[in-house]
Design brief:
The chain is an alpha+beta fold. Helix content is 28%, strand content 25%. It has six helices and eleven strands. A hairpin with a 2-residue loop joins strand 9 and strand 10. Helix 2 runs parallel beside helix 5 and helix 3 packs parallel to helix 4. The longest helix has 20 residues. It is globular and about 45 Å long. The relative contact order is 0.16. Bound molecules: manganese (II) ion. Its main location: plastid. It comes from Stephania cephalantha. Its EC number is 4.2.1.19. One of its GO terms (biological process) is L-histidine biosynthetic process.
Length: 267
C-alpha cells in the first residue's frame, strides 16, 4: 500500500507539504486565494508533478483556480451557485475531511478517501436551499479537475483499474481508464428515489461530472443489489479501489526508477 512512500531519508517533513491551511479552506473570495506552492525537499517518486499552475476563468465562466504540486491537486471553483474547494492527494493515507452540506455525499467522499487511500478534502458552500443538484455536480467537477491536476502527465501509472465491491447483497463492478477521454457508462438500478435526503439521480450526475473534468473512461455495472444505500456505497468503494489501482505506479513500466524499490514488489 505504500507504493509512493519515499525512503525515510527523503520523506518530506510535514512542514514541506502544502498546508491545509486557512489559505485554502477559509472563507474568502477566490480572487484572494493565495497559493503557496512548495515542493518536497526531495522525492524518490518517479511520478511527480512539480509545476504549479493557476487557471482563472473569466467573464461568466466558472472561476477555477487550481494548482498541482506533487501528486496533489488543489482547486477552487466559484460560480453564482456554489463555492467549492478541493484538495486531493493521490498519495495520501485515506484521510477524509469533506463538508459539502450534503451528508450522504460526505459519506461517499469518505469512501473514496478510505478505500482509495487518497487524502480528500472538500469544502463546498452551495445553493442547497434549491436542492442538492448544483453542489453535487460542482463538487464532482472540482474533484475531477483536482484529479486531472494531480495526475499531471500520467507517466508511470497503471492507467487502468477495475474492482468489484460487495456490500452485503449489493455487488458493483467499476472499470476505468485514465485515458484522458471522458466517457461514462452507468448501469445502476437504484430502487428508491432518495437515500436519506439525497436524490439518487445525483449518483450518475456525480460520476458524469467527475468524468468530464478528469478525462476518465468509467464503466459502472451493478451485478447485484436491492438496497439503495448498499448499491451506491458499493459503487463508491469499487470506484475508489479501481482509481487507486489506476493511479498507482507500475514498476515494470518505470523500470529502475526509485519509486519502484522495495514496496513496489509484487508477490
Ligand atoms: Mn447539472
Amino acid at each position: 500500500m505504500a507504493l509512493f512512500v519515499p525512503p525515510p531519508s527523503s520523506i518530506p517533513s510535514s512542514s514541506s507539504r502544502v498546508p491545509l491551511s486557512s489559505s485554502i479552506f477559509s472563507t474568502h473570495t477566490h480572487t484572494h486565494l493565495k497559493m503557496t506552492p512548495q515542493r518536497p525537499t526531495s522525492s524518490s517518486c518517479s511520478i511527480s508533478n512539480s509545476t504549479p499552475s493557476l487557471q482563472i476563468g473569466e467573464n461568466g465562466s466558472p472561476s477555477t483556480l487550481s494548482a498541482q504540486i506533487g501528486r496533489i491537486g488543489v482547486v477552487e471553483r466559484v460560480t453564482k451557485e456554489t463555492n467549492v474547494e478541493v484538495k486531493l492527494n493521490l498519495d495520501g493515507s485515506g484521510i477524509s475531511n469533506s463538508h459539502t452540506g450534503i451528508p450522504f455525499l460526505d459519506h461517499m467522499l469518505d469512501q473514496i478517501a478510505s478505500h482509495g487511500l487518497f487524502d480528500v478534502n472538500v469544502k463546498a458552500v452551495g445553493d442547497l436551499h434549491i436542492d442538492d443538484h448544483h453542489t453535487n455536480e460542482d463538487v464532482a467537477l472540482a474533484i475531477g479537475t483536482a484529479l486531472l491536476q494531480a495526475l499531471g502527465d500520467r507517466k508511470g501509472i497503471y492507467r487502468f483499474g477495475d474492482f468489484s465491491a460487495p456490500l452485503d447483497e449489493a455487488l458493483v463492478h467499476v472499470a476505468l481508464d485514465l485515458s484522458g477521454r471522458p466517457h461514462l457508462s452507468y448501469d445502476l438500478h437504484i430502487p428508491t428515489e432518495r437515500v436519506g435526503t439525497y436524490d439518487t439521480q445525483l449518483v450518475e450526475h456525480f460520476f458524469q461530472s467527475l468524468v468530464n473534468t478528469s478525462g476518465m473512461t468509467l464503466h459502472i455495472r451493478q451485478l447485484a443489489g436491492k438496497n439503495s444505500h448498499h448499491i451506491i456505497e458499493a459503487t463508491f468503494k469499487a470506484f475508489a479501489r479501481a482509481l487507486r489501482q489506476a493511479t498507482e505506479s507500475d514498476p515494470r513500466r518505470l523500470g529502475t526508477v526509485p519509486s519502484s524499490k522495495g514496496v513496489l514488489s509484487r508477490s
